[in-house]
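Example protein as discussed:

>
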Amino acid sequence: MTKASIPGPPGEGLPILVSACLAGCECRFDGSSNLVRTVVDLAEKGRAVLVCPEEDGGLPTPRPPAEIVGGDGHDVLAGRANVVTQSGVDVTDVYLAGARVALERAQGAGARRAILKSRSPSCGSGALYDGTFTRTLRAGDGVTAALLRENGIEVLTEADL
């Protein structure tokens, strides 16, 4: 995927599912945002469908950081891995619920593409933290990114813009 291909098909002119934190919503685990001007522009044009899987699954903001242990989002979906907080609390069910909400919103809006926050245990695409809470990256997708991909939705991160 090249940056030049982002505006074109698939889904040109269709709504795009986006991580709400990239549009300036203060919904990251620490209560901050990761504002990306391109995403804000999509929102202002009415093309962005905002989602925060963690909040939509029922977690508060701020919330303890969490990482996937034992695999990636595809493994979580298959029941082979878990999402846990740094203190060891299993929040897998909440992450799964939030991913389902994101998929429902994407499908309901007709979105065929998503722009999600990189390295997140929900939204990360291609790379995420490895479950050791040492900021070590490894290959893989977050829970929401995995569910979207498994349902035919193209997933990008803000780094692709």
Notes: The helical segments are 37-44, 53-57, 73-77, 92-109, 143-150. The chain is about 25% helix and 20% strand.
